[in-house]
């Protein structure tokens, strides 16, 4: 998967340590680089839009309940 490509992903928002992550329905996770804390959405199904910025890192532009 190429870096800097735009993604729209839907999964469950979790936290691992101090890092927000998106748990995907088929398995696997994406680490999320966020500028504002989405803590109010923890444990909920969300849609994340952003740009891939590493192997498993998404630079989030928006996150909302799905």
Give a written overview of the molecule.
The protein has a five-stranded mixed β-barrel with strand order 1-2-3-5-4. The radius of gyration is 11 Å and the shape is globular. A hairpin with a 4-residue loop joins strand 4 and strand 5. The chain is mainly beta. The chain has no helices and five strands. The model has no long low-confidence stretch (mean pLDDT 94).
Pick out the low-confidence regions: none
Our Rg estimate from Cα atoms comes to 11 Å
Largest sheet features: 5 strands, mixed, barrel
| Annotation field: number of helices | 0
- SSE series: EEEEE
Number of strands: 5
**Spatial order of strands in the largest sheet:** 1-2-3-5-4
Can you tell me the overall shape? globular
Overall helicity: under 10%
Question: Assembly type of the shown chains?
Answer: single chain
Give the N-to-C terminal Cα separation.
Answer: 24 Å
Quote the beta fraction: over 45%
Q: How would you classify the helix and strand content by structural class?
A: mainly beta
Summarize model confidence as the mean pLDDT: 94
